[in-house]
């Protein structure tokens, strides 16, 4: 028997070819695909989302909430669907959402927007590279026109230039509406680069992506300059709420936060938050986001202090949240339903979804932040105990 | 109607309470959950994996392969299940696997193993902190005994100590068998810390997790010291294979790699690889791994050179791969089937799975690395074109 | 006897008070200051440069060169004075300068200029912070007028804004002529901030320096955005020159450079260059620069490759070179003479000096880069041997 | 006239050849070296410290103090010689030393010691590299014997191994007594590497220095693992002392410190301290240290908090202080006198000097930290004003 995966050039999403692949895999490997082959949607809707389709992962979804958001786009209470196989995760986020509700909700603000491609333009010398950086600035309008000729949605906002050695690293920064925009900006930037290549003869060559977009990984440039959207979520938690729900004082929280910040700095960590990606990965899977974008979304900073009234100010800035409410996997069967659960499917909804996501992250930070600090009085550690009670440690 | 999510204290995984939650959510939000409510497994199996369960995300799974691995644990050809909604992803990995096959397979090596908790021990002065670090070293045997009293699997290998200010940041490094081990090590370290706390009176207090474990985010300490497993995957690609399959020369690949490395260094990026998390997130979701661990797995380094015969040596080191074949979500319905597809379910299989994962990552790096470099001859860019042809750009 | 250092409120630079301090120190400590008290300049010229003056450090100066520079500002051969107590340093730089001469000189280019202060503006909420960042952009002209009212030389070029949490980190970027400009920009930014403070009532407070200028230490923002001047120095070294002078092939140099770059990236090092600060510290001390600025000047990147003819392209980008030819210590007795040795004293000379400095750095990189790689044929290591022969190891 | 720098193979430190070089330089450049040629020491003492000697930099030295140190090695009051041309620097450190005195002195602790060379060992594959790392661990005793055969002072304490790709980055960590030890460890490591090379046939080659020692630049590995000595200096400043001497409250200091720490973290800065290198560069020049080591010494962390009594705890950890009291430039004329001023010349004094240095750094941090925060009451900024009054801004 051939070891080649069956494939149909006519229609690779028909029931027949999918079934053929299932049988092939079962025969090749001896595994059974009893559950994996069970899905409720029309497989032809997967054309454009998944090649060599043979089944589905059934990832359980739980719900946390309601989450009270005082955003500019998300306003009111939301039920947040979280697809996860990690016990205690939803319970923990749910507890944090209670803190938020009892504090009067959480304020969310989109502070920046930029999806980018980062071509590198290479020259014979550094002097030529510097001169190009000046030319590029002077010719921005034409470059923008070229880039935007490829898309009705994407807008080229600016081009950052960094001159190193005999090349110029750039970031072509776009707004991309309700799409995540990685492909849209790839195409637009490619057309712009080809135009540049034709109009700047000294250019030796360019690389459309030099890894300076730092896609799907944390970086200094992403944090400083935004990737996707930059969102800040913040609230002031009354002392009594913190103590009654999380059994910790504002001073204990703030003290632990400083040690944690110092430790993150020393460790060379890309984030001083505890675990934004737990909630984000679960939300991304549930709502048809690109789960790999958790790679860049993990980057974040947390800042807290005890205010003059003795309450706790808490905020997180997420500089690289990449999410969409249109395109990609957002229209698929269960994914769309989960977006609709939050009123976030389709055009004009991306900012709303981003605010809910950032608010969700804070719920997780509050809950875990409190749990990991030692409870002197009881001699027990809530964090360990939660995993004993709810999780797979049993 | 109350806005409180329905919950049963008796059995929160019965069909009734799940149905009640579905109705509650539909009524509260106006959304329909027609697909989300359809799953093929017994919901009671989700106890310990997902609270407030109300349905599933159906994430399409395609297959790439066969992937020819010359590992110490994985040997032979494997079909790799990838759960993704990103068009072109599987096609791209599949192309990379062809390169690997035609090059005679890929060598994989587990180079390190360490799952950790990172308590911080705080003192009155830095001098006391320094003295404690010496005491901790001298009393390792007893600390180890305490930690290991909680687990039959986990072994405390060593404790790293970093003296800063008036505290000591530590990393308690364990091997954890076929489990990922975050909870196992949390519990073991907690017991060890309580013993330390009782036996070292000068200790003011400790934090069980000071963020120095840098869980689910990249960091210098993870890269230098391993988190989960450290895996290197490497191969030499004959010039003619590279040219025929990827239409690029070794020199072009190596040149582009250097610009990419420099750009990553300048950008303060946590990785100079292109996109390990694309393949890893898809594999993690398919096989019941904690998808949030993509946060730390994104960290990696790529190294290439053209050897004396004109072939391309390519290697990746992934210092923080956290994966399991036992516990967590690995035993769930579709997840277990996908593990079994690779012969990777259950005890004694973790190293095999890790080798397959690292090899998969290389397939994606080769394919995208070649595609993002400009094809001078045709004047077209493969990367952009692929998204036009296969993806959602259409 | 009082332990208080003698001080004169009338004139703290008279011979009498200096002598009194010398005697005080000798009596208090039992040390003799026979050499330290010997200087050839009028001590009153030190007013504004050194409080509590009691003598001088006599730091030996050697010379390396001639250094052949093909700059935009420095053109021709230069003799470079290096004040150092490190044996082999000058011999090593001198050897590198021979390589440069035999390669036809080195091309230097000033690619950027920005001395900055970095006030942080703090608000009640992140939403207010975001709104302020927009206001600041809209009101740049007035802020610029305020800042420039304090100086005839400094020009405010732009203000970078980074919105985090409830504050905005900014960098006020200036050109500062032939002065280094730290104080000039401090005063100008202070006046601008006071104006902002009066005109933006929602501002809670600001910090004139939030450490975001990262003065005297390497940082991502300095590298990306320039501090002082950004200079690239580059040359192509013919294969035969490299082999005859440094006894190494282009391929060996480039290979070693890649390992070194990877090692620097992995180590979390601020630079992949070998030792720019050796030459810079010696040049800074000789010419009256602020020696502490070595702290930021150490940051740099090196890029090399073997070109199609088999020669070695080598370049360094120094993004944070802070140097002056006017003000500070440049006018002092020996310091001015050393500047004049290179035709670099006074107004209009800063760019020339910066180009010579960057070219000097390359001389050191070439020499040490070749020496640290193992000489297989002889079984000896040049680097170790040099210290045996010339240095204090004897 | 030849452009070649005059040099004598017999004795390059005689009065004649030095005079010949002076004349050569004056003729070539038109500069006068009236002051530069004046030095009080015997030039032959410069053999081993400075090639191509032609004069001296006369760097003014002022004194700050007394500095009250409660160290393990430095105990009592010290007068600290600072060679600088930066106005206000000494006045600022002097003010900080007053705060320290009035607080009862400063506690200093040497928390680590490690001077290193960092050879990279390269293999055919990553699997071979991993195996070598195990062999190296098993054969440490023999490697140590080889290394220590070259020195009566240096001791090889341990070897860190980091397996990446097909090589192993190592750090050979030594104690080096009262010498800085860069050359001593270079020679010892070279001999050890040659032994390894002879005894491990699979080794393809090694690089004695792969830049993983990160000499003279900040890095994650230096901070985590120490370079030279790791010193913590700390004190608790009574509220009334802080307010009377620095006119700031503990709460203002701590608040500003947190913003500064966050800003440093965001900026990707190697240090959250304000300016350790100002004092260190001045002290290094005065006492014959390698001034370029400021490059690595700039790395540091500051931690503060307001304690329960309302006083301010302040500490700094300097993980990479490289200083000597023996060898290098420490025995030269003025340099030795300045060491003797602090009772720090010669053998057995290095730890004492390091403690004084770290304590000096804190004086500067306190003074500048207070000055840069805005004085709301007076509407003036002390930091700007100080430069107006004492510095070159006049």
UniProtKB/TrEMBL annotation, chains A, B, C, D:
<dbReference type="InterPro" id="IPR009023">
    <property type="entry name" value="HMG_CoA_Rdtase_NAD(P)-bd_sf"/>
</dbReference>
<keyword id="KW-0521">NADP</keyword>
<dbReference type="Pfam" id="PF00368">
    <property type="entry name" value="HMG-CoA_red"/>
</dbReference>
<dbReference type="InterPro" id="IPR009029">
    <property type="entry name" value="HMG_CoA_Rdtase_sub-bd_dom_sf"/>
</dbReference>
<protein>
    <recommendedName>
        <fullName>hydroxymethylglutaryl-CoA reductase (NADPH)</fullName>
        <ecNumber>1.1.1.34</ecNumber>
    </recommendedName>
</protein>
<dbReference type="InterPro" id="IPR023074">
    <property type="entry name" value="HMG_CoA_Rdtase_cat_sf"/>
</dbReference>
<dbReference type="GO" id="GO:0008299">
    <property type="term" value="P:isoprenoid biosynthetic process"/>
</dbReference>
<dbReference type="GO" id="GO:0004420">
    <property type="term" value="F:hydroxymethylglutaryl-CoA reductase (NADPH) activity"/>
</dbReference>
<dbReference type="InterPro" id="IPR004554">
    <property type="entry name" value="HMG_CoA_Rdtase_eu_arc"/>
</dbReference>
<dbReference type="GO" id="GO:0015936">
    <property type="term" value="P:coenzyme A metabolic process"/>
</dbReference>
<dbReference type="InterPro" id="IPR002202">
    <property type="entry name" value="HMG_CoA_Rdtase"/>
</dbReference>
<comment type="similarity">
    <text>Belongs to the HMG-CoA reductase family.</text>
</comment>
<keyword id="KW-0560">Oxidoreductase</keyword>
């Amino acid at each position: 028997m051939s070891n080649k995966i069956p494939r149909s050039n006519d229609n690779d999403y028909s029931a027949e070819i999918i079934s053929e692949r299932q049988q092939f895999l079962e025969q090749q490997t001896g595994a059974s695909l009893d559950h994996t082959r069970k899905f409720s949607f029309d497989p032809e809707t997967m054309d454009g989302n998944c090649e060599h389709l043979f089944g589905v992962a059934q990832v359980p979804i739980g719900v946390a909430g309601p989450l009270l958001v005082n955003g500019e786009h998300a306003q009111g209470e939301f039920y947040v669907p979280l697809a996860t196989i990690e016990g205690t995760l939803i319970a923990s986020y749910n507890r944090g959402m209670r803190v938020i509700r009892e504090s009067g909700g959480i304020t969310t603000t989109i502070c920046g927007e930029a999806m980018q491609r980062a071509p590198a333009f290479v020259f014979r010398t550094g002097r030529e590279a510097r001169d190009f950086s000046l030319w590029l600035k002077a010719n921005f309008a034409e470059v923008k026109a070229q880039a935007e000729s490829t898309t009705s949605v994407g807008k080229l906002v600016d081009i950052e230039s960094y001159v190193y050695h005999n090349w110029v690293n750039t970031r072509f920064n776009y707004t991309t509406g309700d799409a995540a925009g990685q492909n849209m900006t790839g195409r637009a930037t490619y057309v712009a680069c080809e135009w540049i290549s034709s109009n700047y003869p000294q250019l030796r060559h360019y690389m459309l992506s030099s890894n300076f977009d730092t896609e799907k990984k944390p970086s200094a440039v992403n944090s400083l300059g935004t990737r996707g959207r930059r969102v800040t979520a913040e609230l002031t938690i009354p002392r009594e709420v913190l103590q009654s729900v999380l059994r910790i004082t504002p001073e204990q929280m703030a003290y632990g936060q400083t040690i944690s910040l110092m430790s993150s700095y020393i460790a060379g960590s890309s984030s001083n938050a505890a675990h934004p990606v737990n909630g984000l990965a679960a939300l991304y899977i549930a709502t048809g986001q690109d789960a790999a974008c958790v790679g860049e979304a993990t980057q974040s900073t947390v800042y807290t202090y005890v205010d003059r009234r003795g309450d706790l100010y808490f905020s997180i800035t997420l500089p690289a949240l990449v999410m969409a409410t249109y395109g990609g996997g957002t229209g698929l069967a269960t994914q769309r339903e989960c977006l609709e659960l939050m009123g976030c499917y389709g055009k004009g909804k991306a900012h709303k979804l981003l605010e809910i996501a950032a608010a969700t992250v804070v719920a997780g930070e509050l809950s875990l932040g409190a749990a990991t600090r030692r409870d002197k009085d009881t001699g027990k550690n809530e964090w360990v105990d939660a995993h004993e009670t709810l999780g797979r440690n049993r």
